[in-house]
TrEMBL record:
A GO BP annotation: negative regulation of fibrinolysis
Pfam families reported in the protein's UniProt record: Cystatin (PF00031)
Compartment(s) where it occurs, according to its Swiss-Prot or TrEMBL record: Secreted
The entry's keywords: Blood coagulation, Copper, Disulfide bond, Fibrinolysis, Glycoprotein, Hemostasis, Heparin-binding, Repeat, Secreted, Signal, Zinc
Residue ranges annotated for the Cystatin domain, each copy included: 30-144
Signal peptide extent: 1-35
Organism for this UniProt entry: Rhinolophus ferrumequinum
Protein name from the UniProt record: Histidine-rich glycoprotein
GO MF annotations, alphabetized: cysteine-type endopeptidase inhibitor activity; heparin binding; serine-type endopeptidase inhibitor activity; zinc ion binding
CC annotations in GO: blood microparticle
PANTHER family noted in UniProt: FETUIN (PTHR13814), HISTIDINE-RICH GLYCOPROTEIN (PTHR13814:SF3)
Length: 210
């Protein structure tokens, strides 16, 4: 599935055109080419979270995207403006976009089986201006998603697949429940608790009907 800004963020189109014109004018005036500079992905995490929130608010149907990680980040600085080019690995939550929640306020989509989880990547162009009250604007975005079952067949469809399963903390509740069940059958472990989840193994079984 592909989501993009056309039709969703129509009010950003004018801003995009203005930003393009501004960059073109400055390029002609300064007689230099604009080279993108790589920037630290972890440092852009808060900005990426805000950008994803704006993307979610501009969508009309489906479920909120949640940020898995910033896969790539570059920037271009033009006087008082900074243009960010981001690649965000995302997953689909259980919260519909109509809820208008912030993506991080949604519980993980643990109600779905692993093969039903939807993950993907959003490529985003966002701008910050030092002299404006609204410090972040999303100029354009394109999100491509697929289910885990599709990604298992072709991992290129969902670059965030393995990062999602490596994030073991989202499975802490299941680990707590499993330990509690085990403790009820084994009194010797009554005072044990889950400190952290080290590793998660998930197996997807395909059933073929004849």
């Amino acid at each position: 599935v592909i989501y993009h800004s056309e039709g969703w963020f129509s009010y950003f189109n004018t801003m995009k055109a203005c930003a393009t014109a501004l960059l073109l004018i400055l390029s002609i005036t300064l007689q230099c080419s604009c080279a993108l500079s790589p920037t630290d992905c972890n440092a852009t995490g808060p900005l990426a979270g805000k950008a994803l929130d704006l993307i979610n608010k501009g969508r009309r149907n489906g479920y909120l995207f949640q940020l898995l990680r910033v896969a790539d980040a570059h920037l271009d600085e033009v006087e008082s403006a900074t243009v960010y080019y981001l690649a965000l690995d995302v997953k689909e939550s259980d919260c519909p976009v109509q809820s208008r929640k912030y993506w991080d306020d949604c519980d993980p989509a643990l109600s779905r089986s692993p093969s039903e989880i939807v993950i993907g990547q959003c490529k985003v162009i966002a701008t910050t201006h030092l002299n404006e009250s609204q410090d972040l604007r999303v100029n354009d975005f394109n999100c491509t998603t697929s289910s885990v079952s599709s990604a298992l067949a072709n991992t290129k469809d969902s670059p965030g697949l393995f990062d999602y399963f490596e994030d073991t903390e989202r499975y802490r509740k299941q680990a707590d429940k499993a330990l509690e069940k085990y403790k009820r059958k084994n009194d010797d472990f009554a005072f044990f608790r889950v400190d952290r989840v080290e590793r998660v193994h998930i197996r997807v079984i395909k059933i073929l009907w004849s």
